[in-house]
């Protein structure tokens, strides 16, 4: 018998540490080669750690949520005498080896990141190719997961789908599955079995499920009244939520924010948008306000390059960027993510719209690559229809400006003669007051306002 | 005659009606049941029970006849056996008689009042029964129609003379030398096989391309093989045109359009059964129909308030056990219980040789549901008990959902598999998955092991094949 130590492999891009977000094995599990052991999160991508050997898990070196340095041991696997003796030396010897799994790291979703980095700029062709590759990698990944789940006793928590062993839950519209005795009891009790959750195999409803449902019934009815509730639920902040927390704390603790709110009359812009969408040309994406704002920002920062910048406050250097990479804050099932529309300055209105929509989808379904989630130089945050009147956006550190979009609504506006209904929308924008003066901030927002209120200006080459 | 008033009136004392009445009686409901003939209906008097008695007698006779040659592998030999069909029929009648008495006794024990005679609706709450002693008016709050079904008659072959129905076939005094069976469904094949085993030369004429068209070809293949071995000629795609003028032959139009004479002392017509919707005043109450059948909902309620219908008169499958389950449910509904039809399986059995059982969905039906299915089939040729019974023909087949292994259907063909129907139905009704069947110890050596093995086969690890 030999012990094989698996260390956190170099997960790429000079990352020195990663957060452990999921264990898919536990001590005592028997794993096969290539079974997934754990998932770690770096920056914004999740990477699975496969097992390079077959054997029994003896030791797990970190807890979920812990940050692990690259190269530190995370799993010890006792291998069978045959392969173990020949392949692996004693554990201290293998500690000195380069991380054995490094070559086999299977990144989730950011496979093309390394390749993409070598590309100087993103040409449309390059994008296509990347998407294809990303798709391939993902489907390959899920196929492997299924293999692992169904192959033997190894339980793959990561499989995503409920495995056959635990039974697929009942789909909507399907007949409830229950023995005749349970069905009769339910009828006698006036319970519609379609409402009852079955915990048995294949979603079968047992007497216990029925008991639980009946016991809960009157309580649910009483809930309309007022009742005291006790108890505290502890939820560990891990993964994306923790990244968000850290980033927000960093931004708020380091950056003195100045927030400036201005209202914009978007009546003309809305007319233009409605006309363009009304043309129904299938090759064109549907336009929201977002691509107009993106184009306006590109124009405005062209005049004020100090706002399209990142501030390395440790070094005391402001990096002014020629490229305008616009981060678009998006709500995903996991939490806030900021996919980045790269080189907005080189994209027209429709290209901006298409790319923003594609990235939002990718972020939501978890397929966005790290490349697509980092590197912004300025950010837009919008809560859409929930946008409210005013927000105080938090700057996406180390950027220096963020533009917040509030809800558009019809408001009465005094035109000097009478009140007229106009489509009004507020922009709530925050700036890093260390490097952006209030005056500059106001100039920037006023420029945006001018561009959006007279949208023709957006298309004037200057 | 004084009118009778009651809470529940059941019209027809077949399996559906008498079960309904007994259960209602148990529940303390003031119940009256009307029946023109003997209690027990088609099933008990001229259907399931007597036909199984005849099939058993035929099997016994045929088995013994097989020992005549002295070359039987079991080493048994005997002199030529004889059968006196009159005595066989008398024995069968005694069984039927015992069961008639039994049902009557059960009804009495449940305090159900039985009225003998032909019932006719006067209106939705009133029925007039023509009894031996005159018309009896019965008023009931709720009425259950359980009038059953009758054999379908062919216009070209009206019953009478040499043309007989299944009912007549069960009362023959002697074995006909030649018998033509029109209709290759389960009734025709069961009786045709029995008469062939008793010594008749039997020809089966089926209009469709194969026998037992309601079952898939895989299930019926062992039956077709056995029919051939018994010397029964099976003509498919063939149409019975009528009796030959001489009266001793059936004229058949074959698949190629030729007319053919089939010698037949008797012509047994078994082309299905029709719901008995005439002669009891359906017109008076004008119920909604579903084709030939009375339309019912999932509580067996008809379109008229207070009138239920159960059994063959309500549709397919026309099976006694369906009618019984419906009858029981309706009695409980009348007693104020909450019930509705939620059965997942109405098993069907063909007492052919070998027997066929089907519960739940066939592979084809399961696939039609749009689901991916897993199928496991285990042949009796790999089952030790089947070998010792000299009945290696057939198999057990399990159909399950591929995603969660829920068992959707179970079929079997083989000697004695009718008794496996209990296990099959229970598995489906309980919502068993393949793993449940595979994980249940099945006694060795029995044919039921084939059930477990079929489940194992579907899971990919059958042990004995």
Your description of this structure?
The complex is a heterodimer of chains A (462) and B (465). With 462 residues, chain A is of the alpha+beta class. Helices cover 33% and strands 23% of the residues of chain A. In chain A, the strands form four sheets. In chain A, strands 10, 13, 14, 15, 16, 17, 18 and 19 form an eight-stranded mixed beta sheet that branches. The longest helix of chain A has 28 residues. Chain B has 14 helices and 24 strands. In chain B, strands 1, 2, 3, 4, 5, 6 and 19 form a seven-stranded mixed beta sheet that branches. In chain B, strands 8-15-9-10-11 form a five-stranded parallel beta sheet. Chain B starts with a strand and ends in a 6-residue tail after the last helix. The interface between A and B is medium-sized, with 17 and 16 residues.
Content of β-strand of chain B = 25-35%
- Note the total helix count of chain A: 12
Report low-confidence residues of chain B grouped into runs of 5 or more.
Answer: none
- If you compute it from the alpha carbons, what radius of gyration of chain A comes out, rounded to the nearest whole angstrom? 28 Å
Number of strands of chain A: 19
Number of DSSP E strands of chain B: 24
Low-confidence stretches of chain A: 82-168
Largest sheet data of chain A: 8 strands, mixed
Rg of chain B: 24 Å
Overall pLDDT score of chain A: 77
Shape of chain B: globular
Mean pLDDT value of chain B: 95
Distance N to C terminus of chain B: 71 Å
Could you estimate the helical fraction of the residues of chain B in percent? Answer: 25-40%
CA-CA gap between termini of chain A: 74 Å
The SS-based structural class of chain A is alpha+beta
Q: Biggest interface and which pair forms it?
A: A-B, 17 and 16 residues
Structural class of chain B: alpha/beta
